[in-house]
Every structure is written in C-alpha cells, then in structure tokens.
Design a protein that fits this description.
Blueprint: H1 3-15, H2 23-38, H3 40-64, E1 68-74, E2 80-85, H4 91-116, H5 120-135, H6 141-160, H7 163-180, H8 182-193, H9 201-209, H10 213-238
Antiparallel strand pairs: 1-2
Length: 239
C-alpha cells in the first residue's frame, strides 16, 4: 500500500460515518470512564491523559493568541509546564493561562459533537493528529514517552481495531475527558485552601486580571461541568 493509499484510507475514515453503539454500550463506556476517574489506582494513570490535554490546551491557546511556544514538559508525578514567550500581561497571556483547566472538557465536548454526528473514526484520527503535533513541542524524555505511548495506542485502535472497538474506544475516551475534567479543578481548590498552588493557573489569572483566584476556580468548574452536561446529552442522544 502506497502512502497515497494510506492517506486516502484515513481520509475516508475521517469523512465517513459509523453507526453509534447501543445505549447499553454507551452507558457501559460512561461507567468505565467514571470508574477510572473515581478509583485512586486508575486515576493515577488517567491523570496523565488529563495533563496531556491540559498542557496541550495551554500550547494551542498560546499559539492562537500570538505568543511563541517554547516547549512543553510532562512529568511522572502528573504535573506539567508549558512555556511560551510574549507579553507577560494582556489578553494573550490571560487566554493561555485560562485554557489549561478547561482544555480537556472542551476537547471532550468537541469529540462528543463528532460522535453525535456519528464520526467515531474522525475523533480517533484527530486525536492522533493532535498528539503528533504535541509531540514535536515536548522538551523532556518522560513527556516524549507519555505522548508517544498515548499516540501509539490511539493509532493502533484507529488502524487495526474493528469498527465496534473503534466506536467503543472513541466513546470511552470522550466520556473520560468529560467526566475527568472537573476533578483537577476540585483538587486545585483543595491545594489552594491548604496554602499551596500559589503559582497555579487560577492564581496567575488573579494577578493578571485582579479577579480573585477563587472566582477563576469557579469559572473552571462551571465550564467543565457545563461541557459534561452538554457533551453527555449529545453522547446519549447519539445512541
């Protein structure tokens, strides 16, 4: 198979439609995603996926707002940092700081819309593309490892998985992003209440805008829960 044939096959997958799973299967993928978020030992793994989306959102916001992206680092303790250059204040910096905690939820909402339109493979291939673009911005070994493993797993499902496996994987991943997104916001406020996280996104936004950090935490929570509500309705309606 030539490169042109491969690209043509992927394009057909992206633009084509796939039947949605049965409602019971959609419910089971939601339950599985919720268990990953709730159970401590699975959350330690799933938290890395949220961090990838979080830091990727910072990077996208930086580029869209005209800042220069210097690189992204992901760490084994599930933390991460995105470095960009530009004005230290102003709308671009505010957008960049704001994007992180809402990024996973917005990504999940976009995926839920595509699944609502019966484009499960489009979701998987877009994730592969986003991870590939993120990979070139990673500046540490663990980050390369984490993004590489995630990209390889999604690619394997997209290329070799059966239609049923692909659909269930797209739904499970989307549910996970939607359900998981509020938890880091709650964890952030717990750290802030204990006197930690003084350099968090919420506290950076407070210094940039003079709006209290607690208000920004509330906005993060409102956006992530709103995406869960709307995205969940789309996923359920698609079945």
């Amino acid at each position: 198979m030539t490169a042109a044939d491969v690209l043509s096959s992927i394009w057909d997958d992206v633009t084509g439609s796939q039947p949605a799973p049965a409602q019971l299967e959609v419910l089971l993928t939601a339950v599985a995603a919720a268990l990953v978020v709730v159970l401590p030992w699975t959350w330690r793994i799933g938290r890395h996926v949220v961090t990838i989306a979080h830091e990727g959102a910072h990077g996208v916001a930086a580029l869209l707002s005209g800042r220069r992206l210097s690189g992204i680092r992901l760490h084994s303790d599930t933390s991460g940092v995105t470095v960009s250059r530009g004005r230290p204040t102003g709308p671009g910096m505010v957008a960049t700081a704001f994007a992180g905690y809402v990024g996973p939820a917005l990504l999940g909402l976009g995926a839920a819309y595509l699944l609502h339109r019966q484009h499960a493979l489009a979701v998987l291939w877009l994730v592969v593309l986003l991870l590939a673009l993120l990979l070139v911005q990673i500046r540490n070994f663990y980050g390369l490892y984490a993004v590489g493993i995630a990209g390889a797993a999604v690619f394997a499902v997209s290329w070799w998985g059966s239609e049923t496996v692909q659909s269930l994987a797209a739904y499970a991943g989307t549910w996970f992003l939607l359900i998981a997104a509020p938890r880091p916001v709650l964890e952030l406020q717990t750290l802030r209440r204990a006197g930690g996280a003084r350099t968090s996104d919420a506290d950076q936004l407070a210094r940039l805008t003079r709006v209290p950090g607690l208000v920004w935490v509330g906005i993060f929570l409102l956006v992530t829960c709103g995406c869960l509500f709307v995205g969940g309705r789309w996923l359920w309606a698609a079945a």
